[in-house]
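In the previous chapter we treated chains in isolation. Here, by contrast, the input contains two separate entities that must be folded as one system, with a combined length of 611 residues.
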Amino acid sequence: MKREQFGRGSILNYIIALAAIFALNFILPRLMPGDPLHAIYGDEALVAMTPEMERSLIREFALDRSWIDQLQAYLMGLSHFDLGYSYYYKDQVSSVIMGALPWTLLLTGLALVIATALGIILGIESGYRRGELLDRCIVASLMFLSGFPDFFIGILLLLLFGVALGIAPLSGAITPYAGLEGFGYLEDVIGHLALPLSSLVLVQLGGIYLLTRNTIVSLMGESFILTAKAKGCSEFSIKYSHAGRNSLLPVTTATGLRIPHLLTGALFIEIIFSYPGVGSVLNTALNARDYPLIQGILLLITVAVLTANLIVDLLYSRLDPRVRYAH
Amino acid sequence: MHIRPFRDLINDRIALSGLSMLALISFMAIFAPVLSDYSPYDYTGQIFSPPSAHHPLGTDSMGQDIWSRLLYGARTSLFVAFAVAILSSALSLFIGATSALLGGIYERFWMRVVDAMISIPTIIVMILVAAYLRPSILLLIILMSLFSWPGGARIVRSQVLSLKERMHVSAARTFGADWKHILINHITPDLAPIIIAMMIQDARRAVFMEAGLAFLGVSDPMMISWGKMMQQALAFTYLNVWEWWLVPTGLALSLTLVGLSFIGFGLEAAMDPRLQKYKQRRVD
């Protein structure tokens, strides 16, 4: 698909998108029937609330004043990274998220690197052997796999390795109260990471692989490949330096566009494996109807996705010189 | 070269297997009352009963017949898929085509909206909205359609931009046809394959999103949904009930999604002239 706007135009798009998300976060609780304080904090929170706390919250959100003042108060809070107070965790939303974020970053970061590397290598190898038995087997199995919903792949791995075979831990990121240190701790973390990470890699692999393979297949007919073959380049060099290098461009773009999928996939997979990242916190928040926490997490993910897409947009024009010349 | 995507689709093995998976799920959905003796809401008298002649997949923690919930869950999934596909592609077609035909500020406005909306992660926004509204099935369909049209609108617009320069459109315009006539009689028929491909994608996303939201527990609790069933079953992995509760439900959902993806893959291959070239070369 042709991408039409770069540079300033695309930054403007992201600003509009961000404004729309802030607006949605601001408007939704205030649209709900009844007292907006109930909607912002949820009914469960108000049971535990004293009249003084309620008054101070009303003052903080400027709920007794016009909606322009409310919007101002909301934006002021955001600019200080004040996402509100989670009554469930009895802590600031931002510090609850910060506590869970390292696990999510570990999981998604590793998954992105492994899935991309594996997808590109498999894609190059199978695109080069187009039509052979190996190629057809990989295409069929990964096409099938990429159709599966992320959370069911996670569930299948959990049932197979965790429940039926009992060789992997069922939940969490570390063995609680084990007091492990050094190498033992690392081993424990890897053991707990193995299943969620494999599920996430399996979910991501299909798309990257199919795209690389298709690109390689269409590149193999190009004349520069013929030239490389004619001048006696090694098979490895044809595959990786000639065809592989030229397939990086669409793959980079697609990797960036894959980040939303990666993050939502991680949410589901963390919930299945009770991995203590942002996804599990979101699940807890959804069950407890802890609205400030739900809003904070979803806002953070949206901003992360928008930033990633913006970076890909900017990188894309760096990677493909034709785009720069065209403007 | 003239492309006939629908003829190629029938000859494509992947698309054909996708169509048969979807046919199986549709069969389950349509004949749900015939295939099961129990209502999906009824309490059957015992919980966690293993599969038997009366209950092919046993009963769940609420004592409901799992097989009949599976059948009626197919209805929910397919209804959501179908409705979102129709509504969302209608929006894409209307906004994409009118933007291309009318141009000017109207076009720039909508393309700006499309660009901004495409960068927003749909499922995240849906989780947020659903957490507040706990949407019923109809509201869910409307919300999903409102968030999934922009991608299609952009494709339709670029197609219409190229189609409207074609000879037969110019001829119609010379005869005094207005843009409504051109859109309905000359452009829409040529857009059909792309619109079908769009609908398949919308349907796939809708099935996934409905199940995902139910799995997170943020949709209407009264709705019979595969996602909801999986969420409930996941809490009982320490019993062996997952064998006939969690796995069949997940497989049904996966079959629907894989079926839709395969049809999509097949259509994509049938419509892409570059892939066609390779196909023909192989035949030669």
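The two ends of chain A are 18 Å apart (CA to CA). DSSP finds 14 helices and two strands in chain A. Compare these points with the single-chain example from earlier in the chapter.
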